[in-house]
Amino acid sequence: MSDALYKALGGAIRSRRESLGISQSSLARRIGAARTTVTNIEAGGQSIMVHQLMEIARALRMPVSTLLDVIDGFENEPQEEAVDPKMETLLMKLTTPVKAKRI
Question: I need a surface site. Which of 9, 15, 39, 94 has the fewest CB within 10 A?
């Protein structure tokens, strides 16, 4: 899910940058980053810290909330963890009540 989220966010950044006629190099200079960083963000291959997102939004002359609208549909669904059958058996044995023997 996070890959799709970052790709959607990167796509929104790219779309806005292109609509303003700003190059990746120019955006990078405005936010104090390398051009390759902008390339990776737009491709969805790099996570974005909050302060970076704010700098990008400022450089693109738009509210951060507008960028975040793109990812509004993404929900944090719980991920099922893979269970090791041996570990599950061991846990069952450890949590099963033991009957006391009378002497």
Answer: 94
